[in-house]
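Q: I have 437 residues here and want to know how they pack in 3D. Can you give me a structure?
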Amino acid sequence: MTTPKQSSGRNILKNGGWLLGGKTVGALLSIVYLAMITRNLGPENFGKFALIFSFAQAIAGIISFQTWQIIVRYGTRYVLEKAKDDFAQLILLCLMLDVLGIALGALLTLTAVFGLAGYLGWDTAYSLKISLFTIVILLSTRGTAIGILRVHDRFRDAALADSLVPIIRFLGVGIVVIIGGNIDRFLFVWAFSEIAATIIMWIIILRSLPLHIGRQNWRHMPLYYRKYPDLTRFAAFINIGSSLRLMNQQLIVLIVGFYTGPAAAGFFRLGHQLGQVVARIADGISFAIFTEYSRLNQSSGSGAARSMIGRTMRATALSAGLLLVMLLLGGKPAIILIFGADYAPAYPLVLLLGGAAAVQVATMALEPVLMTHGRAGWVLIGNAVGVCSMALMLPLLMPSYDTIGAASAVFAGTVITAITLAYAYRLLVKNEMQDEG
């Protein structure tokens, strides 16, 4: 007979395996097409490309409600109980949040782009190009679609659809390099890859899952919303939390670019990208943990769920250590071999930002657990404390150390966030054990 412990472990390995496969494909292909782009554009133009992409990603992250987390948290019970109408109502609610986010993001994009144009010397054509690219990225949101697939244990379909993004980029970059590469053509490849993956993901959902959405009515949306009295708080916390994490990912690239120029931003972006390769792979396991922990906590109780998290954290700590060893021993030779000697200055950034990624890998199970238990506030506090620490260090370190100072601030902020989340998890476990005793 299969125990809950064995079943949950197998589910994480199975679901995480699909996500891990997709993330691994993406990570490996990203190194290849980044090598082609960096060699084709050179440090200065690659920096400009990185700034435009980071701007779009920052806007998309700021307005994202992370609706996949909402579906996993509130929809798991509906799927287990086969409450199809309730689940359809939740889907409509999340789609409404996605549409609201796109509208807010488009407004924010136009305001920010044309507000910065005079300061940064952008002409009208260039500003329109950035705005159009960002709006396409906004329209490519896949939060609700990903949540639907994950809550139905369709991790394979989600992984296959997501794998299309790096595959299309790889093929597109290859074509662009052959016909003559420039920033505009690479931006087109990036935008097309996002839109194509979104369309295919929804085709998979509509063809394979009976969602019963036709039975619902948009006019009854306020009634659906009132069924979740804590939804606003939960959505706000995860939105603010994801926005804060952007400081360590996209906004910091913009800050570096505005302060030190496009070439430095390109080095920083490259350092962050390489440092995040393993972290992005680990995200696949984290997503599987979130879904399986929600299911296990509902069906088998908190004790079995805690046991699963303990085993997971031991494995992720080992993975983090291996990541650091790989960066220390092979980081600089790999950069020169893959991207060229012009990008050797990115090596110290790879070490620092890779160290930050290793910390994220080691503690990646904490955030899903806190979210599942409705402790989104602690996740928000953890990210806020880390970002505030980083923001305080930036003006102290960047004037003297430029990009190294910025990367050091990111590393310190990530460590502080991890410590805060670990403390929150310890309090959660302590309260659970007191309740059980």
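Q: Anything worth noting?
A: The chain has one domain: 4-436. Residues 4-436 form one domain.
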